[in-house]
Write a structure and sequence with these properties.
mainly alpha; globular; 16 helices; about 300 residues
Amino acid sequence: MTATAARAPSIGLATLLVSLSAIGFGLVPWFAKGLLAAGLDSAAVAFYRFLLAGIVLLPFLALAPEKRAATLWAVATGAAVALGWIGYVEALKVAPVATVGVIYMTYPLFTLMIAWAWQRLKPSPRALGGGVLVLAAATLALAPALLLPDALGPLLLAFAAPITFGFGITILTTKLLALSAVERASGFFVGAVLGLLPLVASLDSSQLIPAAAGDWLLIVGIAIVTSLLPNVAYAYAAPFIGPGRTAMAGSIELPTMFALAWLAFGEALTWPQLIAGALVVVAIVITPAVRPVSSHPAP
């Protein structure tokens, strides 16, 4: 066994790290809605979420010739995910947190479809079954939201987030194996900052800079709790379990958002939403882990 292989986490530990990362991601609405209430633009909220990590991890950007191609993939992935995430923030303005969470949690389906169509990674029957359960959960929880006035457009735009995230998971688990975990995270965050920079540069100062000192605590929180720490753990663990298991383990983000909607925002959780959350948990359990042949980072 090589030294690199010895450092590889077990499938159980890698799945746990992805799940804990997803819980951090699920806390995003707490910070995002606070910053939106402070008058910040959705692009500014997204920019602040990725900016600190981009600065901290910039020195680890892998520019050596043998890693340059993988780094470019990481940068492109970060830009795509960050731009898609704006749709998620926009939807939080007009729809309940639980509803937006259900839309976002369709990303396992997009992950499986993209990995199958692009990388020829055919999902196993159990992975397909997990995807069907997530689709059923999304349909069950989303249907009442379609009746909300003026919400359909933003809700449809919110699908940009799961589509780009599904693309990002596929890239992370297939194209970035030449990079270490910190190099993957560095490329992703630098790409996210670069992708959002033109939009942020066009904003008025009132849409970009919080007026109250307390709002800066929300910026620190969204940058560290929901971005830097969970993304580094995610980038480390995801390649060891493959796209399908990564997507389904990450689906624990939905129950996290349901709990947040109820406890922090006073949203009443309906039986359809609770059943949808249960279906997602079942999907996590039944989806098998698939360890790619070259799943460990190159030394």
